[in-house]
Amino acid sequence: MPEHPLRLMIVDDHPVVRDGLRGMFEGVPDIVVVAEAADGHEALALTRAERPDVVLMDLRMPGLDGVGAIERLRADHPAVRVVVLTTYDTDADVSRALTAGAAGYLLKDAPRDELHQAVRTAAAGGRVLAPSVVSLLMGRMTPVPAGAPSPRELEVLKLIARGAANREVARALLISETTVKTHLKHVFAKLGVDNRAAAVVAAMERGLI
């Protein structure tokens, strides 16, 4: 086993699902499941206690749901990467989760190896999206108007692609959160998109980031 395996927490309100997911990571030498939570509130408490690197997060749970938990985790534990794992890939669910700061969005029918790699990719600062989610985001794009993102706008977008919240982008670039929002507004217009996740996908497709 590696000296420091990735620490994973599983958050889902169904015990059978949690058991199944834990089983999918048994025997994986570089990933260890350190905690399981049944809702967002328990996930926040266990994050403080167990310090996971990555959280696999269900969306629809009683009490504090997945989106609410992601927002709290991004605010209180910005180093923790959250990958949504759900059965739903509706436009509203995807947009809410990625806007909240999720580093990825996968469906529960994802193969075992894909889940393993998603955890590794998220921990390394990457973004992981189910093919259906990529198709959804690409379908929301409109023709690109004249003009390309400026170097500063691309700096903002690169940090967003790594899962940074507006506050973290502002701190990293020594600018205000209002300026970050203005840059993003300009990026959306130039790339013909209407949200952060679609902007990242569009920029990657066009080789901008």
Automatic annotation (TrEMBL):
<keyword id="KW-0805">Transcription regulation</keyword>
<feature type="domain" description="Response regulatory">
    <location>
        <begin position="7"/>
        <end position="123"/>
    </location>
</feature>
<protein>
    <submittedName>
        <fullName>DNA-binding response regulator</fullName>
    </submittedName>
</protein>
<keyword id="KW-0597">Phosphoprotein</keyword>
<dbReference type="InterPro" id="IPR016032">
    <property type="entry name" value="Sig_transdc_resp-reg_C-effctor"/>
</dbReference>
<dbReference type="GO" id="GO:0006355">
    <property type="term" value="P:regulation of DNA-templated transcription"/>
</dbReference>
<keyword id="KW-0804">Transcription</keyword>
<keyword id="KW-0238">DNA-binding</keyword>
<dbReference type="GO" id="GO:0003677">
    <property type="term" value="F:DNA binding"/>
</dbReference>
<dbReference type="InterPro" id="IPR000792">
    <property type="entry name" value="Tscrpt_reg_LuxR_C"/>
</dbReference>
<dbReference type="InterPro" id="IPR011006">
    <property type="entry name" value="CheY-like_superfamily"/>
</dbReference>
<feature type="domain" description="HTH luxR-type">
    <location>
        <begin position="142"/>
        <end position="207"/>
    </location>
</feature>
<dbReference type="Pfam" id="PF00072">
    <property type="entry name" value="Response_reg"/>
</dbReference>
<dbReference type="Pfam" id="PF00196">
    <property type="entry name" value="GerE"/>
</dbReference>
<dbReference type="GO" id="GO:0000160">
    <property type="term" value="P:phosphorelay signal transduction system"/>
</dbReference>
<dbReference type="InterPro" id="IPR039420">
    <property type="entry name" value="WalR-like"/>
</dbReference>
<dbReference type="InterPro" id="IPR001789">
    <property type="entry name" value="Sig_transdc_resp-reg_receiver"/>
</dbReference>
<feature type="modified residue" description="4-aspartylphosphate">
    <location>
        <position position="58"/>
    </location>
</feature>
<dbReference type="InterPro" id="IPR058245">
    <property type="entry name" value="NreC/VraR/RcsB-like_REC"/>
</dbReference>
